[in-house]
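Q: Convert this sequence to structure tokens.
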Amino acid sequence: MVALRGVLFDIDDTLFDYSGSDEAGLLAHLRAEGLLDRFPEPAAAVRLWREITRAEYARYTAAARSPSPSTGGPGCAGSWPASGSGARRTCRTGRPGAWFAGYTARRDAARRAMDGASAVLTEFAPRYRLGAVSNSSLPHQRGKLAAIGLLDYFGDTLVCSVEHGEAKPAPGIFLAGCALLGLDPHEVAYVGNDHAVDAVGARDAGLHAYWLDRGDTGWGGTREGAPAEGVRVIRSLAELPAALAAPAAPAAEAWRARTAFRRAAVPPVTAPTACGGRTGPASGPGRPAGSAAHAVRPPRRRAPGRRRTGGRPAPPARPAPAP
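A:
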């Protein structure tokens, strides 16, 4: 069993209580804007807000850039229902950017770390190399970690999708985090609250994947098929030290073993090289069916009495000289 030497963390709703600060800031802002009474209950406002934000966040991670509140991002109040009808109304100020700025200020005033985050990082700091990988921007996440007193645990060992150029669950961003730690993926654990984006993404990149499953609260992401093969489940950060003490092998290793077994059972068709040897599969990535590499012909069998002379019969053997 390979000993773990590093731990990478997701930030939002793993170390930082994003859901809690988001809800507190939203309700305070709606109350100040006179919009909260347009909902049957506060929970309905939170559900609508998160529906809007999920759609915008999907666009954000796909483009690896920040959504703009002034162009209809989650900060626009244009989706809040008007009182007594299904009609829509614009934000009271008529300026979505200003509306979003007011929400952001109230949200940031409610920032806090997740329960157990500081204790776990304090315990891990002497034992593991620590880092974070997040679908956000470095200035935003560094400011957030600094505000809740956790930035010093990481220093510059943060990778964010905006600067990196791709977002989780792409394997490259996880591997960039491992590179910052100076470790190979199989020496690193990744801990995150989103099953598909964090746990499965880290597993597919070859890391030890730990899914922080707090149930259906907050931003838990999709739960279909959870937990996937090769993903370890913890219910709180307090469970993490014991879970890391006996890490599961990365699922990628098991997949490689199964793939090797299948290849041994069914040898792949290979394409001939110019030297008469054999090289990789005749079809597959970069070699579409119907290509020259895919059209592999079986070798011809030479008829008796023939040699490699362009198909001409071999000359008759000369009689041995008389003694």
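The first strand starts at residue 6 and ends at 9.
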